[in-house]
Specification:
Elements lengths: L2 E5 L2 E3 L5 E8 L6 E8 L6 E6 L6 E3 L7 E6 L4 E6 L8 E9 L16 E2 L3 E5 L2
């Protein structure tokens, strides 16, 4: 059974930075696109970023473009989300997800149905 474990969340002031990590086990990462989603209580889950397993293609939501960057290291079975210039509205529970044989580039339209494996989430709180 695929397991995804997020880490790196925490409390940060507006304008600060955090780097989230997600380590996958029992998963051949070269077959999977790896994505970051976030969700606040009572709201729908929102796709933030996705990194394809081939050719370096990525998707980033308009709300985070220029501030967040997703990257992956297949050798370490890990995916990362570098978050800069954080805003209070970025406060959410952030999830890592894996989508088998999925290709996500700038034209990708995210849907939760594309991702069969999810982590438990890591909380990010941006407040002064």
């Amino acid at each position: 059974q695929v397991q995804l474990a997020e880490s790196g969340g925490g409390l940060v002031q507006p304008g600060g930075s955090l780097r989230l990590s997600c380590v996958a086990s029992k998963l051949a990462m070269k077959r999977y696109a790896m994505a970051w989603w976030r969700q606040a209580p009572g709201k729908e889950r929102e796709a933030i970023a996705c990194a394809s397993s081939v050719d370096g293609a990525t998707f980033h939501a308009n709300s985070v473009k220029g501030r967040f960057t997703s990257s992956r290291d297949n050798a370490k079975n890990a995916v990362y989300l570098q978050m800069n210039s954080l805003k209070p509205e970025d406060t959410d529970l952030y999830y890592c997800a894996a989508g088998e044989m999925l290709y996500c580039d700038s034209d990708y339209t995210p849907t939760t149905a594309d991702f069969g494996s999810w982590g438990q989430g890591t909380q990010v709180t941006v407040t002064s």
